[in-house]
Amino acid sequence: MFTAMLAVHSALRWLALAALAAGCLRAVYAWRRGAAFARYDGALRTAAVQLLQLQMVVGYVLYFYSPLVRLFWRDPAAALGQISVWFFGALHITLMTLAVIAATSGEALAKRVPDDRARFARFAAASGIALGLILIAIPWPFSPLATRPLLRGIF
Fold first, then answer.
1. Which of 24, 53, 131, 132 has a CA that sits 20 to 30 A from residue 121's CA?
2. Which of these, 148, 136, 9, lies nearest to 65 by C-alpha position?
């Protein structure tokens, strides 16, 4: 079951990241052009945030089953000396949670604004912050903090 969850997690994370990037780029483009808010924009924004929220749920399940996280919680002070354990035990989950909070609050704030330009600006700012946090928190293969394959659990 754990391997299946890793496969779902790996595929879902790229889908969520792509949806958030598309929503952010669309919001920036529409805001700068002064475009009218269309049904498509609301659907893209909602899909991006819902995919992020689903990814967060799957990520939390994997977090509590991870051997690195268990090692971290067994002795957090010692984990500071092991950068990979500290990254997955504390930094990764914190940054990803903050990213989902930023995107979710940005969507909620954008819904409440009657002005289309302000609606796009709010979601662009929030999704940009979320996107930045996610890109920092991904365990890229070239990262000095932790390395993982980009499609873990599938190949």
1. 53
2. 9
Asked if the model's pLDDT at residue 155 lies above 50, the reply is no
Q: How far is CA 127 from the centre of its chain?
A: 10
Q: Residue for token digits 């929503």?
A: 23
Pick from 105, 99, 93: which is nearest to 129 by CA?
Answer: 99
97 with 56: CB under 8 angstroms?
Answer: yes
82-106 pLDDT per residue, tens = 888 888 899 999 999 999 999 999 9
Separation CA 137–CA 88 (nearest Å): 9
Q: Which amino acid is at 16?
A: A
Predicted TM-score (pTM) above 0.85? yes
Check: CB of residue 53 under 8 Å from CB of residue 16.
no
Q: Own/partner pairs for 105-111, CB < 8 Å, 24+ apart?
A: 106/130, 107/45, 107/46, 107/49, 110/45
Of 51, 49, 47, residue with least CA distance to 9: 51
